[in-house]
Each structure stands twice: as structure tokens, then as C-alpha cells.
Specification:
Layout: H1 2-6, E1 11-13, E2 18-22, E3 25-29, H2 32-41, E4 50-51, H3 60-68, E5 75-77, H4 80-94, H5 98-108
Antiparallel strand pairs: 1-5, 2-3, 2-4
Length: 117
């Protein structure tokens, strides 16, 4: 896997976090910044948004249009640094060393802003 990461071949599809309706059209917003920009642009828009917590909340047509279609999807390229950091965190959180896991959680709990990621 590492050679694929080093060569820049690994990407993560990023489905939108929010959806709302403008008239009869469904609008998807990829993150909080996009939602805030939408609210500024549509000041009179009703403040109803659905928080999409995962791919299971979308039907196949929504998934195709927001996450699978190369023309409309958002991809995040994984770098070696990110892969190494993720591997380290996974070994701490999923490993056998309970004390290391407890220390990690205790140290980092105050920095958590969103548990959905």
C-alpha cells in the first residue's frame, strides 16, 4: 500500500455533510464552510438542513451524483504523512496497550470538535 500512497494513487471520496432544498431542487453542501457560504448567499432561505452522517443516509441516485460521479465528486488525496499518522493513531486506539490508549484519549479529548469524522 505504501508505494501507492507515495505515488499519489490513493484518494478518499468525500460525500457532502449537508443537504437542503431550494424550491424543488436538492442542494448538497460539502462542509460547514459551504453551509455558511450558502446561508450568506441565501439569507431568506429556511434554516432547515439535513446532516448526512454517512453514505447509508443517501439513496443510490444521491450517492452516484455526489460521491461517485467524477464530474461532481470531491476527492481528498492521501499523502505519506497522513497515512503514517493514521497508522500510528489506529495502532494506539486499536492496539493491545490499554494505558497508551487511555493516555491518548485523555490528552486529546478536549480537542474533539466533531465525533462524526
Amino acid at each position: 500500500m505504501r508505494p501507492m500512497v507515495e505515488s499519489g494513487f490513493i484518494y478518499i471520496a468525500q460525500p457532502p455533510l449537508y443537504s437542503t432544498e431550494v424550491g424543488k431542487e436538492k442542494v448538497y453542501l460539502k462542509d460547514d464552510a459551504a453551509k455558511n457560504a450558502f446561508l450568506k448567499e441565501h439569507a431568506n432561505h429556511k434554516k432547515e438542513f439535513q446532516r448526512l452522517k454517512g453514505l447509508g443516509e443517501m439513496d443510490w441516485q444521491e450517492l452516484k451524483g455526489t460521491t461517485m460521479d467524477a464530474a461532481t465528486r470531491t476527492l481528498l488525496q492521501i499523502t505519506v504523512d497522513e497515512a503514517a499518522e493514521a497508522e500510528n493513531i489506529m495502532s494506539v486506539l486499536m492496539g493491545d496497550d490499554v494505558e497508551m490508549r487511555k493516555e491518548f484519549i485523555t490528552t486529546n479529548a478536549r480537542d474533539v470538535r466533531n465525533l462524526d469524522f
